[in-house]
Write a structure and sequence with these properties.
The complex is a heterodimer of chains A (72) and B (623). By secondary structure, chain A is α+β, with helices and mostly antiparallel strands. Helix content of chain A is 38%, strand content 32%. In chain B, helix 4 packs parallel to helix 9, helix 4 runs parallel beside helix 20 and helix 9 packs parallel to helix 20. The chains are: A alpha+beta (72), B alpha+beta (623).
Chain lengths: 72, 623
């Protein structure tokens, strides 16, 4: 399943790249894209575990860029 | 400016005022009486904390999260280093300069993002539905196929559909870049995303919102930035190695020379700090995607959708372009091109032909009737006899009229004048006497010739045309247009193999594009390096398979896209070279002790700002 999320206060392009990298490493995520320009994140992950995966995504992103909020 | 940016501005101004005050005091010699360096340190710590407290906070927080090498940390180390070597004013100035740069950078990025998204602002917010005689605004998502919506003057058309009542001029500029409005009245198809002119329209919805033109375009554009160009991937990889390498160099620079040469730790630590400030690859990481985003934005402004940065990059290297003939270079509608009467007037010949074909539903009969323009008087026409492969024999006003090809004329022993033409020729005879011929042909699209010429001007070496049409017709069209190579009488499957042949002969980085209107073209569009489809006439399958979509089917736009893509790539390359050159230079000067912190901060944020401003040029279209 592919889902899109809006991001708030994503301030640096390098952080977006780091977030993308970190999200891709999460188990069950088949693809991820963090667009600094669109301030959007697309995540393609397993359907049944999607909610769990999203929790992990939020945790990982907070680690990389604590200022950035994911609007779920 | 956002609230956050405004707050930052206040901090910057406050720090600046304090800093100038301290600077004057220092140079006026007021601080000389202060004996202790510690008091001076505390004095300078005030402006430093005002401007930099968040940097230190973030750096500390990120370290606790295991994120070591971010900008905040590097700035903290660099300024602490300056404090360490008792360059207090420099520490404050560097932090101030850094924050000014960051603010400016954030502002510039925000601004450019907005100007791009404004351009993409084609999404309708509501649809008017009539319930019990009253208009209600609903979400376009909730409207079902077959329902009737009302589009008031000035409103954006929310869903694709067919006009059932009303007449208006429709502004399609947001989708096609075409500035002349299109007339729409009952029976016409209209597409979502366009703006209604002065009339109210009642529209029967033909597609759900998710399948409508506007939703598809938005999805394409949003996904475009995820298909990265080679240059972008290179920058991402580069950034991964660049920061650690520069940081390691900084550490080496701080410790090795003093250990080997002995003495002066402060001097070398200061040089190492310069390295740390320059170690962020932000200028590249922001400006390269921003440049491509701008280029894609500029293309969509003229009504061309490019589905990814990689395709925009490929278009710049396009040297071969293959066209499908019918529908792409020609209109795909057969029309009477020439009327050659013999022994009668043109009108008489056309009347004869139109009457003769009155009962026929052959496409050629249709184009003759259309050219005649009047309703033929059926009472004058008798029972027609079709002669398969030859034509038709009809009694008109009691006379025997023959309409058909050369074979018919020869069989009936009629002396006719052979007409040399690329189109289909209908010879006419009345009671055994030759009356003349009517030539019917597909006509070349407006601007197609110009399109080929301008493509050659931008460096396309070979223009090829593929068609299922007859050799003669293909040659004629190719000659008129200035096409280099023609392959006629191809079956749909042959097109793929022809394109593969052409793909094999191109050299190195050269790219091949295929332009088609979509019927049976999807496999070829996928096979070519760049598949270009017609947006308004093309099939959905073709638009899906294509990499570039011409919203208004105008082939002239291809050359414009080539120009946009070249310009975008040029800007991106300028940015890469500029950013790397400045960074390398300042690194070198820093290592030799010739650069100070100011230059280092310039090489970081200053370069970012310049690169962002340069990237924004990609959004502008040259006329």
């Amino acid at each position: 399943m592919k889902k899109k999320f809006k991001l708030e206060d994503l301030d640096c392009a390098n952080c977006a790249a780091k977030m993308e990298d970190a999200i891709k490493k999460i188990d069950g995520v088949s693809d991820a894209n963090v667009s600094f320009l669109a301030q959007k994140m697309t995540i393609d992950a397993q359907d049944d575990k999607f909610d769990e995966i999203m929790k992990e995504v939020v945790r990982v992103c907070a680690k990389v860029e604590p200022d950035c909020r994911i609007l779920l | 400016m956002t609230k956050k940016q405004q707050k930052m501005l206040v901090r910057i101004i406050a720090t600046f005022v304090i800093f100038v005050g301290l600077f004057i005091c220092e140079h006026a010699g007021l601080f000389e009486r202060i004996g202790s360096k510690w008091i001076l340190f505390l004095i300078y710590l005030i402006p430093y904390l005002v401007i930099g407290y968040d940097i230190i906070y973030k750096a500390a927080r990120n370290i606790s999260h295991g994120q070591v090498f971010d900008e905040n940390f590097l700035m903290m180390i660099a300024t602490f280093g300056a404090f360490g070597v008792q360059e207090y004013s420099e520490a404050v100035a560097v932090m101030l300069f850094y924050q000014v740069g960051e603010l400016f950078q954030g502002y510039a990025v925000g601004k450019s993002r907005k100007s791009i998204s404004d351009m993409m602002d084609i999404c309708p917010e509501y649809a008017n539905i009539e319930i019990d005689g009253k208009l209600t605004q609903v979400d376009p998502d909730d409207v079902e196929i077959g329902s009737v919506i009302v589009v008031k003057p000035g409103e954006r058309i929310p869903l694709d559909g067919v006009v059932i009542e009303g007449e208006s001029l429709i502004d399609t500029a947001a989708l096609t870049g075409e500035s002349v409005p299109r007339r729409a009245s009952a029976g016409d198809d209209i597409i979502s995303g366009c703006v209604n002119g002065s009339g109210t329209l009642r529209v029967r919805v033909s597609k759900e919102f998710d399948d409508s033109t506007v939703a598809k375009i938005l999805e394409l554009v949003e996904n475009a930035s995820s298909k990265k160009a080679k240059v972008e991937n290179f920058i991402t990889r580069f950034a991964k190695y660049y920061t650690p390498i520069v940081t390691i160099l900084a550490v080496l620079l701080a410790f090795l020379p003093p250990l080997i040469l002995g003495g002066g730790w402060g001097e070398w630590i200061q040089r190492a700090c310069i390295f740390l400030v320059i170690s962020c690859p932000c200028a590249l990481v922001i400006s390269v995607p921003l440049g491509f985003f701008g280029g894609i934005g500029a293309a969509s402004k003229i009504g061309v959708l490019v589905k990814g940065s990689n395709y925009l990059e490929a278009v710049a290297e396009m040297t071969t372009i293959v066209f499908d003939k019918t529908g792409t270079l020609t209109k795909g509608e057969f029309k009477v091109q020439e009327v050659c009467p013999e022994g009668c007037t043109k009108e008489e010949l056309m009347e004869l032909a139109a009457l003769g074909e009155a009962y026929s539903n052959h496409p050629i009969a249709g184009s003759i009737k259309e050219a005649y323009g009047k309703e033929p008087d059926m009472s004058r026409v008798g029972q027609a006899e079709e002669i398969a492969g030859h034509g038709i024999c009809v009694p008109i006003d009691g006379k025997e009229v023959l309409l058909g090809n050369e074979k018919l004329m020869e069989e009936r022993k009629i002396r006719y004048t052979s007409v040399e033409s690329a189109g289909t020729i209908v010879y006419a005879a009345c009671d055994g006497r030759y009356m003349g011929a009517v030539v019917i042909a597909d006509s070349v699209k407006e601007g197609a010739k110009e399109a080929i010429q301008s493509m050659k001007q931008v460096g396309v070496k070979k223009c090829v045309m593929l068609t299922g049409d007859r050799q003669q017709a293909a040659q004629a069209a190719a000659g008129e247009l200035g096409i280099d190579e023609v392959h006629a009488q191809l079956l749909p499957g042959d097109k793929v193999s022809k394109v593969e042949e052409l793909l094999n002969v191109r050299k190195g980085k050269e790219k091949l594009a295929f332009v088609g209107d979509g019927i049976n073209d999807a496999p070829v569009l996928t096979r070519a390096d760049i598949g270009i489809a017609m947006g308004s006439m093309g099939s959905d399958a073709a638009i899906e398979a294509a990499d570039v979509v011409l919203m208004d089917d105008d082939v002239r736009k291809i050359a414009a896209v080539v120009r946009i893509s070249r310009k975008t790539l040029k800007i991106v390359k300028q940015n890469i070279v500029f950013a790397l050159a400045v960074k390398a230079l300042v690194l070198l000067l820093g290592a030799l002790g010739l650069a100070n912190m100011w230059e280092a901060v310039f090489a970081d944020v200053g370069v970012s700002v310049i690169a962002i401003l340069n990237a924004m040029r990609a959004l502008k279209i040259q006329k």
